[in-house]
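Input structure tokens:
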């Protein structure tokens, strides 16, 4: 950049087009198929011009402790604005410990209990009933015909604003009778989706 008497001239001042540096968001997914394809679809559909989003998953998925460790290494090695860890409960007894560790490392967590299908379900209806992963997947099949982990799930969902409100309502519900971030049912996927949609509004 050319230097003048009072400092550096911006490209804008010289009549050149100015493009602000891209914000980088890295999303690490436990699942190797469903979750990555969902967030890739958002990235593509929303045309996030000022954002560079990298979506990473293991070939056969990543166990949450491994996922958080990899996320921590990425955050140290590269200059990024946000690193998100996306994973489910799967009845693991160490989940709270993993989430606590992730937050200590400055990582963001999109955790779902019992599974990400809860987030999909919230696009259609609100419920605070405790369910297993198997039950949740069975329920989503009643709303999405031929539901499976290979399908374009993003294209099947609408009313994301209602889903966000319902996810927030669940956390408020658990504030009085459990942990708002990890109780069954609960999800933090709405926070990541809200961020991505907000970035679109600002681009």
């Amino acid at each position: 950049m050319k230097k003048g008497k009072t400092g550096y001239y911006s490209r804008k001042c010289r009549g050149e087009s100015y493009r602000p540096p891209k914000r980088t968001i890295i999303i690490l997914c436990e699942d190797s198929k469903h979750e990555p394809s969902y967030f890739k679809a958002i990235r593509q559909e929303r045309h996030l011009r000022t954002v560079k989003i990298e979506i990473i998953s293991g070939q056969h998925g990543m166990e949450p402790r491994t996922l958080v460790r990899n996320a921590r290494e990425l955050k140290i090695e590269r200059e990024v604005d946000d690193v998100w860890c996306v994973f489910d409960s799967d009845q693991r007894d160490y989940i709270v410990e993993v989430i606590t560790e992730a937050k200590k490392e400055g990582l963001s967590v999109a955790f779902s209990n019992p599974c990400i299908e809860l987030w999909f379900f919230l696009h259609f209806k609100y419920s605070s009933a405790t369910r297993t992963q198997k039950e949740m997947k069975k329920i989503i099949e009643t709303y999405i015909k031929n539901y499976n982990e290979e399908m374009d799930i993003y294209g099947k969902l609408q009313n994301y604003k209602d889903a966000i409100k319902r996810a927030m309502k669940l956390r408020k519900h658990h504030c009085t009778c459990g942990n708002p971030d990890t109780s069954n049912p609960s999800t933090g996927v709405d926070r990541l989706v809200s961020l991505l949609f907000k970035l679109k509004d600002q681009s």
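The mean pLDDT is 86. The chain has one domain: 21-202.
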